[in-house]
Amino acid sequence: MLFSREVPFPDISEFSDACAFDVRTHNGFIAVTSGRTGAQKFFHIFTKRGEAVRFVSVFVGGDKFRADDWRMFGVATDGGVRVFRKLGNDTALYQLADVLNRREHFLALGSQYLYVGRCRVCNRPLANADSLREGIGAECKRKRN
To answer: What is the pTM of this model?
Structure first.
């Protein structure tokens, strides 16, 4: 499965400034607009149900955001996005990982990052500022403590 079918793509109006987003700890949808070309890429970082691994997908399809229009290309770890080894030396995938790993660099070049937060445990939408900052919903945080 390339994309979590349980998590529909959010309406573009739900995206907000990604200042709290950290690829090492947050799940969600990220929209990145290049400051140089204006091109836009959509990413999804999610936890598969029953697994502790957080996966990273990039949107490669048309304009419908169907589940089959996403390509899973790596995992999100404490060190950032890592491209799957089995995908070989696909330079484009490493460049995509770089866009997520080096946000400050690309912001300095005029790129824009927008984010819709999801809990890194259960993938539900994050509703308050504390949850958005920490990347985990209040209910899942209570269960962990």
So the answer is: 0.83
